[in-house]
């Protein structure tokens, strides 16, 4: 009798796995919809680069706040019960973009969007791990790790590409991308609504508290190394996304919205490619490759805009190499945290990791926007590339020494 129920249950959980992955992808893609549209907002309302920085900072405030306040609560309330409201919040953000089009509306929409992203990143990643375990027990977490990191990083690139293409060739470029994603997000909501949730919630439910470090004490060294990896990886990605459109328009005189979206897409797509290509690699080997590629990508990006004749091709190559490096390091960081964290506190551990990552993503973009008020775009890029590069070199030994300890793995298995 158990055998007759096992196959249908496995199929149902496997379908749920891909439903959650689709929802994760949709939310992350929506978060980068505004990136290639900022030029249009600037033309319409005369925004300065500093105002764009404020809008970006609003998104970062939403992400960081949600990771601290709510990124971990699916450990207590269940994955689906937390993921569904988070998707709904993303829909609300899209509606605010559609109906409140001036600067205050953009800031509010980005805060709401950031808040939903913070919840989704931790919850969906933990949800995928739970569904994989329910479907394929005893096979390790590699499949869920790879899918989670691919849809996370890939979604960021896909949203920018779609928005850029729609802005370039569809009518109403500040309306159509958001309207399209309202439909996509509603489909994602419906799919998750009927998905099973194998996570066992605690009974009685613990009292609410904000985010804390939720990994075994013996594994905290590995966790901090992983968090450091997420910070520097997203720092490189944030540096490129924060300045790419500035160089396309101001230095390379390229005003195409499709090109702006494609430039960001290339970077994140390269991160996805390297994550898939390094599937059989050890975490240490993946991290070593990622560190090397991030440093090379930074150098190529700086060279692209400092040449006597700035090069679009070299800028794209630099972005791709940077994205590949960031994707590799992020993959290693997520894999480490999933491996060392017990299932009943996995979302909380992942929320801490993503908190470090989004702080890294925000720092270069916000800092660059402030710096552009005082120095040239080329000097801004060089200065931040040096800072981020020194940070990568300074933390390399810690990153390469990361990994789940035997004691941490034992604690996870016993949980």
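-> sequence recovered:
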């Amino acid at each position: 009798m158990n055998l007759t129920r096992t196959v249908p249950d496995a199929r149902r959980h496997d379908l749920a796995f891909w439903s959650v992955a689709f929802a994760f992808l949709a939310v992350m893609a929506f978060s980068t919809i505004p990136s290639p549209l900022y030029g249009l907002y600037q033309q319409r309302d005369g925004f300065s680069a500093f105002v764009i920085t404020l809008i970006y900072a609003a998104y970062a405030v939403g992400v960081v706040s949600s990771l601290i306040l709510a990124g971990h609560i699916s450990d207590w309330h269940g994955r689906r019960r937390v993921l569904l409201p988070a998707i709904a919040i993303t829909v609300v953000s899209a509606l605010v973009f559609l109906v409140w089009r001036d600067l205050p509306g953009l800031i509010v929409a980005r805060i709401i969007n950031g808040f939903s992203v913070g919840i989704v990143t931790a919850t969906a990643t933990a949800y995928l791990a739970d569904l994989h375990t329910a479907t394929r027990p005893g096979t390790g977490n590699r499949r869920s790790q790879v899918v989670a990191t691919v849809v996370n990083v890939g979604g960021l690139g896909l949203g920018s590409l779609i928005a850029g293409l729609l802005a370039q060739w569809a009518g109403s470029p500040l309306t159509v991308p958001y309207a399209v994603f309202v439909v996509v997000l509603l489909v994602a909501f419906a799919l998750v609504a009927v998905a099973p949730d194998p996570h066992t919630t605690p009974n009685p439910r613990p009292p609410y508290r904000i985010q804390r470090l939720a990994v075994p004490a013996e594994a905290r060294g590995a966790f901090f190394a992983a968090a450091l990896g997420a910070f520097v990886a997203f720092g490189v990605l944030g540096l490129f996304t924060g300045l790419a459109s500035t160089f396309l328009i101001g230095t390379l005189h390229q005003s195409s919205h499709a090109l702006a979206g494609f430039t960001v897409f290339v970077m994140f797509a390269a991160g996805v490619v390297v994550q898939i290509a390094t599937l059989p690699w050890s975490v240490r080997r993946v991290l070593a490759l990622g560190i090397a590629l991030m440093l090379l990508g930074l150098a190529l990006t700086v060279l692209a805009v400092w040449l006597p004749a700035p090069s679009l091709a070299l800028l794209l190559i630099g972005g791709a190499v940077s994205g590949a490096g960031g994707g590799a390091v992020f993959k290693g960081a997520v894999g480490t945290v999933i491996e060392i964290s017990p299932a009943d506190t996995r979302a909380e551990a992942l929320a801490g990791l993503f908190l470090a990552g989004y702080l890294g993503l925000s720092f270069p973009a916000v800092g660059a926007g402030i710096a552009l008020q005082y120095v040239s775009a080329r000097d801004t890029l060089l200065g931040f590339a040096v800072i981020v590069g020194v940070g990568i070199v300074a933390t390399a030994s810690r990153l390469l020494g990361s990994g789940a300890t035997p004691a941490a793995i034992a604690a996870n298995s016993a949980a």
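The chain has one domain: 2-196+213-414.
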